[in-house]
Amino acid sequence: DAKTTQPTSMDCAEGRAANLPCNHSTISGNEYVYWYRQIHSQGPQYIIHGLKNNETNEMASLIITEDRKSSTLILPHATLRDTAVYYCILRGNSNYQLIWGAGTKLIIKP
Amino acid sequence: DAGVTQSPTHLIKTRGQQVTLRCSPKSGHDTVSWYQQALGQGPQFIFQYYEEEERQRGNFPDRFSGHQFPNYSSELNVNALLLGDSALYLCASSWGPFNEQFFGPGTRLTVL
Fold it and tell me: pLDDT tens digits for B36-57?
C-alpha cells in the first residue's frame, strides 16, 4: 500500500506557483521522497526526488520538512501544460519498485 | 538521445490469447521495470529485470512473465488473457535497480 497521502485535486492559476503537498508521517530513515507526474494517457514523467535536504532542478523544487513527515512540490510558474496527475512516492534505497497512490490531479486554469 | 521506447502502442486481443510487449531502455540504462496501470489508478509494479534476471516481483500471477536480453531490452509476456488484463502497460528503465526510473509511453492492451 502507498505510504503517502495527497489531496485528490487542486487548481492553480496559470503563471502562479503551484504548491502540491504530500504527507508521509511513517517515512523511514532510508526512504527517499520521489515525485512523478502523468499527463493524460502518457507514461509518467520523473520530476525530482530528495532525502532530507531541499532540492531544485529545472522543473521544480522539493521542500521536505525537518521531521521528514511531509513535503511540498513547487512548480514555480505553472503553465497549462503542467495539468496532470502528480504522484508523491516513498522509496527506500534498496527497494526495487515504486509504490503508487492515487496522486493529486492538478488543473492549471488560464 | 532516445528515451524509453515501447511497442506496440496499442493492441487488441481476445480472452485466452497470449501477448508479448516490448521495451527498449533509455541509452545507458541497464534495468527495466514493468508496471500495469488500470484506468483511473496508479501504476502497479509487475517485476524488475537487472542483469537478465528477475529481481523482484509484485503481486501478479505466473501468467505474467518476462525476459531481459543482453542489450538490456525486455519483453513482458501475458498468457491466458483475461478481461481484467486490459490496461496500460508501462516500462521504466534506470541505471541500476535502485535509481530513478524513466518511463516509456506505454502499450494500451484491450482484451475483448
Answer: 999 888 999 999 999 999 999 9
